[in-house]
Amino acid sequence: MWWARDVRRATVFTGAGISTDSGVPDYRGPQGIWTKDPSLADLFTYDNFRADAEVRLRFWQVFAGRQGEVEPNAAHRALAELEASGKALRVITQNVDGLHQKAGSTPRKVVELHGSLATATCLSCGERTPAAEAIARLPEEPVCACGGVLKPSVVMFGEYLDQDVLSLARNIAAASELFLAVGSSLQVEPAASLCALAVENGAGLVIVNRDPTPYDDLATALVREPIGTALPRICEALAP
């Protein structure tokens, strides 16, 4: 791992693949949510969610069914331990499961590009409600106290990323010496383009993923071994 030597500032960009060992299914893999049931992708479309009460209720039912007590795995813990060792480390994640923070990563050092499942947001008044309170109202559709539609505080297809969050992620990527892309298909833009931005600003790009990605040609190294073993080994090599 020559590319890990003398790295002062590292950024880790994580996708669904880092959480599969915690029992959180990914989306596009062989056992992915959309692979098993392509119709579920329609539930993640903002226009469909906003327009159709049946879509909203089904979304909440699927969402509630995934809210078991999941715990961070070895990969999440390795990142938290690397940060605790004193390494200048930032995490940018496409995930909405909160497992980086649960593992011990400093919340302000984790950039959640696609939001969080911890809360729901009213599409009328903007008020945020703990997601658990919304789920408790099932089988009725969860609604805000104002009567407005409640939506999990995540970015759906057809929505723009929060520009302040995206700008922060871009600044972090541009300042990196090493950019690790872990467990992401790198097919969702503009998030995936952070890889190119990091490389354009002189960072080494290492992709840790089971399958090929659109950014493999830019990579300094490709790691195909399981994330649960690869990332702890990489973090050990990066430790001060």
UniProtKB/TrEMBL annotation:
SUPFAM superfamilies: DHS-like NAD/FAD-binding domain. This is protein acetyllysine N-acetyltransferase. Its EC number is 2.3.1.286. The keyword Zinc applies. Zn(2+) binds at residues 122, 125, 144, 146. Residues 1-240 form the Deacetylase sirtuin-type domain. It is an enzyme of class 2 (transferase). The active site is at 114 (proton acceptor). Gene3D superfamilies: SIR2/SIRT2 'Small Domain (3.30.1600.10), TPP-binding domain (3.40.50.1220). Keywords: Metal-binding, NAD, Transferase, Zinc. PANTHER family: NAD-DEPENDENT PROTEIN DEACYLASE, NAD-DEPENDENT PROTEIN DEACYLASE SIRTUIN-5, MITOCHONDRIAL-RELATED.
